[in-house]
Amino acid sequence: MSCVRRQTKLSKSEELLHHASNQKMIQTNAKLLGMEGDPDLQFLLQGGDLLKVLSPSWKKTRFLKLQEDCKTIWRESKKTFKSNQTFPVDSIAAVRLGRQSEGLKKNTEEQVECRCFTIVFKGRRKNLDLIASSEEEAGSWVRGLQKLISSLNNLSADQAKDHWIFSCLRKADKNKDSKLSQQEMKNFLQLLNIGLDDDYAEMLFKKCDKSGSGYLAGAEIEHFYDLLTHREEIDVIYGEYAKTTGFMNAGNLLEFLTKEQREKLTLADAQKIIEKYEPDEQAKGKSLLSKDGFLMYLHDPEAMVFNLDHKQVYQDMQQPLNHYFINSSHNTYLMEDQLKGPSSTEAYVRALLKGCRCVELDCWDGSDNEPVIYHGYTLTSKILFKDAIKAIKEYAFKKSDYPVILSLENHCSVEQQSVMAQHMSSILGSALVTTPLGDGMPTNFPSPEELKGKFLIKGKRLNKLEASFAEAAEEADNTDVTEEEESSNEADDEPAEKTSKKKLKLAKDLSDMVIYCKSVHFNSFEDARKNQSFYEMSSFKEGKAVKLAEESANAYIRHNVEKLSRIYPAGSRTDSSNYNPVPLWNAGCQIVALNFQTACTELDINQGRFLVNGMGGYVLKPAYMRDAATEFDPITLTRGDWLQHKTLHVMVISGQQLPKVNKKKSSIVDPLVKVQIYGVPADVSEKETSAVANNGFNPSWNENFQFDVYVPELALVRFLIEDHDSTSDNEFIGQYTLPFNSLKMGYRHVPLLNRNGDKLPSAGLFVHVMVLDAK
């Protein structure tokens, strides 16, 4: 059977490595992507002229073409002095047909609608607005790119690895003779992020150069590939359980799954795994699992470190809204900094597609009686309020069905407030909650389940929900202050009566839309308990919130059992940096708003918190944070149900295909791994491996760590890989964050995300995890 497997692998190698023609390379990559013979892929490979649009008068021709590797777009300028550029397909977040982007709406006429499309990039890179020569061509570009992105995203770990390795081989084979000289082999290793000294590289080359010809070809490249991709740690694990003529039978596999992986499976389940993952038909026919099949299983999402049961909605969604942590954004409209960067409807789209369920709109009077959104008193650009509402309506429920909260910071005149109300009513329609659910005056929040597909307005009201509404616009309660006014008060503990109390006139039609999230000023927990209704909520600047969380944690938690709290970054964070959300979650705060446009550790943690429960943006708080009489205090940790002391054992074994930090060919990373615990103060911890010199392709650590975790329901685990630098700060390579209770035990692969939170296609960590009850 091993001969059959080897022959299959050799034929694959022959196909991928020994045909120099570009056409053969295209066929190979198309087949790997499952797009062989696809007319839209052929269209992309042929390429064509497009108009790039920057302004009504700036429209320049650009030639775009998919390169033979099927993962890079080549872009040519008609200017002879301007260098041609490329960008990877996996840097594209979305491709949208029509005049959907702000740029195309503003800079093109309606008659070109069917010829327009936009390439939206991940991170902060600006959109690419384009016009094709015909509706058919625009459709081909959009369909082709969407299919290609989907195919690349759906590659298995082995397919992604092969696609990457063979692309690097092509690049290294400079003279395209399907052979590798010793220098080309070194170039190839550098592309793979492996740095070898000359003596070792020469030894490796000679070991593979069986013919003594001075270059590698055919089966010699195959042998070289085997040496590169061989994983000794898998050999050891597999060898311990492969007790049936060198293979695993269903019984052997079940022993591994129950003993090592702590899975509760049956013999029939083990048999299904063999049928699904074993690539060799002869082995599969005898119900045996080869080492290749075993590794394919370990790479599958169902066998990775994140418990797939938690990927779906698995929590009780019938609890009151304030019993959930809610994925929330601050100044959502900003793409960059807080002072002079652009505002864009695209920022709302990106936040909503990341699972955000509370977005912010800073509203000001605009020209032609049209309210605008921007960061007041700064140089940030402006967008129309109605355009933001349209974008929110279109993308609100693509990622999650659960309710979206529109947090209004209202600086508009009464007249333009009425325009705001009209826009929200006409655009959002029946999805906008404008009256309490059910009959009569509510006494508690509805649940996320009851509010599916609905929008809630957070803002000021003229009076209590219980009271009859005024006939005309009146002055709001003088104790109400806007966030801008409150954040100008740098002394967080300054008495409330010294805070600026600018009176704000409210339009009745806008006021009446505020049902479950009425904004009020916070005076004290006692005052809130005695005088505020359940739907009256306060916003806290981070400094004030952190102080309350440190000094009055239990009171804060009890407050949040009854009401909603929103936290927002300090005004001093003009660079759109973020604060640590964990201490505020520990205090039961639901709406901990972060700057979604800034890639940082804090946003990684936020993404990890909301990774679970269908990534729907709502995560149920632990029972002890939903009890009005709770004694839980994350600082003092007195005895209670929250204390579930666990011991976490993590062995960091190896890494696979880590990306370069510095794009220079000769730059090789020196990776180290940090395992971090976030949670209550007693649980916060970090341990790190040593650095592996000059190897980002297959570094090996085999280092063990142990952690005590006292409140697992609030804990998060973060795997961080950095490029070690002895003279300056380490550089980020990749990370993955998940809730402690979503860890799976045993030998697990850990996927890695880049700075923007997007998956690194073939990179990963291999670890062993064990969680035990502490003695």
From TrEMBL:
Record-annotated C2 domain positions = 629-754
Q: Which PROSITE patterns match?
A: C2 (PS50004), EF_HAND_1 (PS00018), EF_HAND_2 (PS50222), PH_DOMAIN (PS50003), PIPLC_X_DOMAIN (PS50007), PIPLC_Y_DOMAIN (PS50008)
Q: How is the cofactor bound?
A: Binds 3 Ca(2+) ions per subunit. Two of the Ca(2+) ions are bound to the C2 domain.
Residue positions of the active site: H330, H375
- Name the residues that bind Ca(2+) 4: I668, D670, N694
Q: Where does Ca(2+) 5 bind?
A: D723, D725
Note the superkingdom of the native organism: Eukaryota
A single cellular component GO annotation = cytoplasm
Residue spans with biased composition (Acidic residues)? Answer: 472-495
Please provide an example of a Pfam family that matches this protein in its UniProt record: PI-PLC-X
Origin species, per record, is: Poecilia latipinna (sailfin molly)
Q: Locate the residues binding Ca(2+) 3.
A: N331, E360, D362, E409
**Is the Hydrolase keyword given for this protein?**
yes
Instruction: Enumerate the InterPro entries for this protein.
Output: C2_dom, C2_domain_sf, EF-hand-dom_pair, EF_Hand_1_Ca_BS, EF_hand_dom, PH-like_dom_sf, PH_domain, PI-PLC_fam
**PH domain spans which residues?**
43-150
EC class of the enzyme, as a word? hydrolase
Q: What is this protein called?
A: Phosphoinositide phospholipase C
Q: How does it sit in the membrane?
A: Peripheral membrane protein
Localization? Cytoplasm; Membrane
**Cofactors (names):** Ca(2+)
Q: Name one GO biological process term.
A: lipid catabolic process
One MF term from GO for this chain?
Answer: calcium ion binding
Record field: catalytic activity: a 1,2-diacyl-sn-glycero-3-phospho-(1D-myo-inositol-4,5-bisphosphate) + H2O = 1D-myo-inositol 1,4,5-trisphosphate + a 1,2-diacyl-sn-glycerol + H(+)
Annotated EF-hand domain residues: 160-195
Listed EC numbers: 3.1.4.11
